[in-house]
Amino acid sequence: MKTFVALFALVAVCLAAPQGGGDQAATILRFDNDNIGVDGYKFGYETSNGISHDEEGQLQNAGSENEVMQSRGSFKFTDPASGKTITVTYTADENGYRPQVSIA
Q1: Which of 32, 34, 36, 53 is in Cβ range 3.0-4.6 Å of 75 for a Cys bridge?
Q2: Per-residue confidence at 54, pLDDT binned at 50, 70, 90?
């Protein structure tokens, strides 16, 4: 009986452990970071599981009452439920965040 309980506990622990690789096993394939000071920035990365993100921003009207950081970029990932690639392209500025989504 003790052997059965010990075996049952071992099976339960194995089944409770995280399964699969996917996102947990993802590695960084590319990482770029170009911070050019207070005037702007640019960064991007890509991982082995198909996630990527690129963005750049520029300070507009520096020193004025209308100073604003304008950012634009895109990111993509694979929807685990459908297997389709979701791409979001966006702009963010004094008019807010404006994304455009495409599914392929």
Answers
A1: 53
A2: very high
Map 2-67 to HEC letters: HHHHHHHHHHHHHHHCCCCCHHHHCCEEEEEEEECCCCEEEEEEEECCCCEEEEEEEEECCCCCCC
- CA of residue 64 relative to chain centroid, distance: 33
pTM of the model: 0.71
> Would you state the structure tokens that stand for residue 29, as one six-digit string?
């394939």
Task: List % helix, strand, coil for the chain (3-state, nearest 5).
Answer: 20, 50, 30
Tokens at residue 34, please? 């170009």
